[in-house]
Design goal:
This is BTB domain-containing protein. One of its GO terms (biological process) is protein catabolic process. There is one protein chain. By secondary structure, the protein is α+β, with helices and mostly antiparallel strands. It is 33% helix and 24% strand. The protein has 3 domains: 146 residues, Sandwich (Apoptosis, Tumor Necrosis Factor Receptor Associated Protein 2, Chain A), CATH 2.60.210.10; 97 residues, Potassium Channel Kv1.1, Chain A (2-Layer Sandwich); 67 residues. The radius of gyration is 22 Å and the shape is globular.
Length: 345
């Protein structure tokens, strides 16, 4: 992945076209002390500008009894001096996992080193995102188990070269990797490309593990890793494009395998494809695959179910399978129906 390199003051030549997603699930935020904070995993391209969500469930201390949330921008190690990220679009929301009411704030902000120290993260956010007294059972902001989701989206983070650029050392010795799949012959791929495109494979082949010594990745026990699916994944690693003729089952398998191998771009491409395919007939099938991961696709599924009160009745033949495969989804569907009954009573 490209590194962001520039001379101070940092006027980055390119900005990201993707959106970094950050999320923290906070259980019973009123049980935290003011000033106590939580951090999300760091997101963003390795070697480039990255971001993180910091949440104070009960306030920063300066402000109490409110959820405070801030987006932090972390500069790459090779670009610590005089950096600046202009016009970064940040959205922070408080919501439950079931689509309902949400608190959403969106701002565009220019990030510079905090306190004038180049290596320090810069941050921007809200001290009073939502008051704790607003987090009642009927607010629509809490899950049934008193959990609240704080989610941030960050776009326009800079990097020096196009995100899709494939950077490999062509002078390095070729090391073919054999990928074993459950339903066909092994697939042979260039280890250099796997390492360049995926942090997961980068760590796999850098570690003292079986795959690093044998050059074999065994996926025969993975139900999603069909010959067709892994072929499509490897093609995407080369081109960063999905075949427009991908069908529903393949898109779902690609989404699952992208999660397994931490291939964020492939996961987003699969979600976009699934969003275009979403219909009354497959909404439950898709929803049980993307449940609780957030994003626009899951939201669209819940909106479809909320908008049509008779949809679940028409899909009754699918409910038995849903209950067996995903009890958590069955519970959320029951809660959704209960809320609808309360609204109509």
């Amino acid at each position: 992945m490209a590194s962001a390199v520039c001379d101070p003051p940092c006027a980055m030549p390119h900005v990201s076209t993707s959106v970094e997603q950050l999320e923290l699930v906070v259980a019973s935020p009123w049980t935290y002390a003011p000033g106590e904070k939580l951090y999300s995993p760091i997101a963003g391209p390795p070697g480039g500008f990255r971001c993180q969500l910091r949440v104070y469930p009960a306030g920063t201390g300066e402000v109490r009894n409110a959820i405070s949330a801030f987006v932090r921008v972390l500069p790459p190690e090779k670009n610590m001096q005089g950096w600046e990220c202009k016009n970064v679009r940040c959205s922070i929301r408080v919501m439950s996992s079931i689509v309902g009411k949400e608190i959403l704030k969106i701002r565009t902000h220019t990030f510079t080193p905090r306190d004038g120290r180049p290596g320090r993260p810069a941050e921007y956010g809200f001290h009073k995102l939502v008051r704790l007294q607003e987090l009642t059972r009927g607010s629509g902001l809490l899950d049934g188990d008193s959990k609240v989701r704080v989610r941030a989206s960050v776009s326009n983070l800079p990097f020096a070269k196009p995100r899709n650029a494939l950077q490999i050392d062509l002078s390095a010795e070729l090391q073919p990797v054999r990928i074993l799949v459950p339903d066909g012959p092994p697939l042979i791929f260039d280890q250099r490309i796997l390492v360049a495109r995926s942090e997961y494979f980068q760590k796999m082949f850098a570690a003292e593990c079986k795959e690093a010594s044998t050059g074999v990745v065994d996926l025969r026990q993975d139900a999603n890793a069909s010959h067709q699916c892994v072929s499509a994944m490897l093609s995407f690693l080369l081109t960063k494009c999905l075949d427009p003729d991908v069908d529903l089952e393949l898109a779902l398998a690609l989404h699952a395998i992208a999660d397994k191998f931490c291939l964020r771009d492939l996961r987003e491409a699969a979600r976009c494809t699934l969003k275009d395919m979403l219909s009354e007939e497959n909404v439950l099938h898709i929803l049980h695959q993307v449940l609780d991961i957030g994003g626009h696709l899951e939201k669209l599924c819940w909106q479809m179910l909320q908008a049509d009160g008779g949809l679940l009745v028409r899909q009754e033949d699918q409910l038995d399978a849903v209950i067996q495969q995903t009890p958590a989804l069955a519970k959320k569907l029951i809660l959704l129906g209960k809320r609808k009954m309360q609204k109509t009573s």
